[in-house]
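=== Discrete structure encoding ===
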Amino acid sequence: MVFYSHKNPNKRLIDHLQNVTNLAIDFAGEFKEVVEIAAKCHDFGKYTTYFQKHLLEGSSSKLSQHSFISALFAAYVGFKKLGEDNFLPLILYSAVINHHSNVERLNKNLPERIRFTLEELDEEKKEIIKRVMKQLDDLEKNFSHIYQELELIGLHLYFKEFIEQRPVDEVLRKLAKLNYGLGKGKIKRDRIYTLHHMIYSALIDADKLDASNTPITKPQSIPFQLLIEPYKSKFSEEPKEELNKMRKEIFIKVLDSIEKEYKNGKLFSITAPTGSGKTYTGFYAAKKLQELLGGDRKIIYTLPFTSIIDQNYGEIEKLHQSFIHQQELFPYLIKHHHLADLFKDKEDTKEYQLEPDQGILLVEGWHSGLIVTTFIQLFESLIGIKNKMLKKYHSIKGSIILIDELQTIDIKYWNLIKYVFEQIAEELDCRIITMTATKPIILKDSIELLKDYHQYFQRFNRVELEYNDNGMEIDDFIEDFVNNLEDKSYLIICNTINQSLEIYKKLEERNLNRKLLYLSTNIIPKERKGRIEYIKKILDQRPIVVSTQVVEAGVDLDFDVVYRDLAPMDSIIQGAGRCNRNNSKGRGLVKVVKLAKDQRKYSGYIYNSIALTITEEILKRKGFYTEEEFLQLIEDYFTEAMERINTVDDSEKIICGLKEMDLEAIKDFSLIKNRPNYVDVFIEVDEESQKLFEEYKKIIEEVYDPIQRKNKLLPIRRKMGEYILSLPIDFVRKELIEEKTMFRMALEQKERLYSDDIGLKRLDLDTPIIF
């Protein structure tokens, strides 16, 4: 009998076990002894005729399920090879039983008590054990053939014992005992999480890659000495402007520091003002560190928002294109976030002979030398239970992680992030470089690479900040704004979409004879990108731009005057970074105002009330500040915030979960607040989007094979992401069309529901839309 692991095309089971083992060992590094057992055993249960009939004939029963019996066999082999005085067999059991799902808990399907009889178990567990016994009977019928195959991977004698002894109760008792004594043995408690996720990650990534026949390209990296050349060419002339002189100084000092300090720790920081060239400086610091440490360490460059990834990725991509053709970038450089295209065109796919599902597996597993991605992708892989996110956990090992604007993470998670960074530096041999213009009180022990950063904040004199402590309604704000309008460019940053739409509408009604533009996530991503580029081009025409926080981090816009509705201090300073950014306009002005509706501040809808109170208290001490004072403002804010905001409960609960391997405690961790009453909606705004939807619908209706359908849909879904908005479900159900798999605003609804100027027309919504 021929045993298969997968079909379309048919893959022999023994070949799959061998391939997964080879890949997983390569991924696991020092954990390879344990991963080897997991990989060789993970599909052991597929040797039953029940599974083979399910695979080849489509017949299905609970007897065809393979994860539990495979997990028991993995634990059995683990006890034999690794001994019974550590927790590795329990980790093996969990990794294998969960390899097709999220990691639920270590004791999944285990008895609650160490001493038990079959009759004492609940009905569900009784049935599971009876099912395993039937599966063992079935395996025995094909013993000779299975024995010969498993001999090829060295499991034949363990298989013989497993069939002869039927040690199911014994293995379950030993596993229950390990689970009961978790953390009391030789392995430190806080190391169990790392061990588990490394083994689980290496296994599931290798399993998916081989099952899809994805060819693996070894991650590549251009040496620092070569990659520095395009930077030197771009900035070859001695800078004349003061700002560019400072940028060059900072660049040189940081690179000198990393060379002197790289052996002295694993946590580093770069603190420098907004607009001082941190993108290049941080990137080359990471590249220099990569060179100094030797080996093939990956660089993971993380940013807070998808809206700024394209911009920073584009700069890094240009540096690489001096040496590598576009079609060859993939093993050197990838961009990973939910809107990113896997390949720019079909030629790239041909170059690597990849199907779309294969490409996405390589991207999601971070199989590249340099990854540009979001905080969400990094932190929800380091802290979490999701199968899809944990595929890349093993790829983080040994990496250099470059983190831009770390302080944008909710302050309640700061203690958690500190703990996790210290853990992965120790357990996974990572290096961390944080970059910020608003140095937070987190990772206080990190080595500062710009030793004299204070002097650069003192030398910057681009902006003045003026605080108005008197609250005002939108009508009052409009009146004040129009009365003080000058021949300058203006940016108004609002806290909610409803607020921004109302301000835009009222300014439009004034007929100010100025270019008036709107920017927020109320506009589809495709139009948003185009609008940012358009605004850059017309800044010399003195436009007025009404926006939300979407402009605050990393968006390279430069206005004469910025109005910022009250927000926590770090957001205000980030907003100020869009004012006179390039120091070419004398001195810019940032006005902080407190806007309200019916006496309720808009800031209160989205920000922590204590953070707002601290900000107000600090700002009204003087009411007027120059840029030289911004660093002191932010340091005062963070000091106060850490003392007064209760960060213990939110962080400590999850830290405890990581230490105790209590997956229940960490399963709901997310950097983004869940919005259960929101759904994604495809917005048809032009013929291109209409054709995209028709193509999508045709595939859904006509392609029945799930793998073929997935491969055809993947590139279309990526393009469709440029037309998707997240909207309140009540509005969606009332106004839009519900298709088989999504909600849609049809092109014929556009005139009534969508405007090219402001995006979705939803001013009449009662609930404040917060983006």
